[in-house]
Amino acid sequence: MTSTQSSSVKAYLLDLQQRIVSALEEVDGQAFGTDSWQRAEGGGGISRIIENGNVFERGGVGFSHVTGKNLPPSAAANRPELAGRNWEAMGVSLVLHPRNPYAPTVHMNVRFFIATAEGHEPIWWFGGGMDLTPYYGFEEDARHFHQVCRDSLQPFGDDLHAKYKKWCDEYFYLKHRQEARGVGGIFFDDLNELGFEKCFALQQSVGDHFIASYVPILKKRKDTPYGERERDFQTYRRGRYVEFNLVFDRGTLFGLQSGGRTESILMSMPPVVTWRYNWQPEAGSPEAKLATDFLVHRDWI
């Protein structure tokens, strides 16, 4: 692992952030704001944010590159070999919350981590993935999203999509609710067994396929007519998104425990959310169909 390789990853991530923001601005018609920040312990980032846009009620596409000397518990708990090493983490992470309940929320993240100690080989890995969270399900949307996910992994092995899809299904699962967060996608972590160049290429392919996975769905659904019923159900289901991010999400926990910038870490939160006590949708309704037909682990392609 060389400084040139690390610099290549950073350059790619910054370019990816800009390409994604440009594509989303074209759909929304409103510009994303830019918030650059620095972290006292080391590093910083650039948060690109849109609120009250024409399409996005809230969305964030963040780049961060942070460094430190002591890993937070969420990162070191299962990796004792990381103790006492200097570390750096960089990535692009996004969450988009469209206003229209028929347009799904989406999450994507690609990241790189390296820990170094004098006299020892560096420990490094890539991670990432993307997943789709609809409020009203459309089979063609789920099939499209999963097909593009599979396309992103196909050059690296025929078995990877099934492996990373299963990993995503298991990761984005609310154990206390016994339900999936959405229709899944792909998820991978601790990727280093292919060697740096191939691992980096895989990460780039996942990042590069995001726009094709989501923007066509967004364009198709963003102008669908809706009323108070759909909006009310959307804000209720957004509560599940908040629960997952605050209770289970590794990136959120890592960011908060490592002294990261809270505003940038929590930019994934939806702006309007509701909770109800023991509420269930009417049997046979479109709202009930989300749970019975979409929030189940299934092969979409």
From TrEMBL:
Any one GO molecular function term: metal ion binding
Gene3D superfamilies: Coproporphyrinogen III oxidase, aerobic (3.40.1500.10)
Protein name: Oxygen-dependent coproporphyrinogen-III oxidase
Annotated GO CC locations: cytoplasm
Required cofactor names: a divalent metal cation
Region (Important for dimerization): 241-276
Subcellular localization, as worded in the UniProt entry: Cytoplasm
Main subcellular localisation: cytoplasm
One record GO biological process: protoporphyrinogen IX biosynthetic process
Subunit structure: Homodimer.
Family membership: Belongs to the aerobic coproporphyrinogen-III oxidase family.
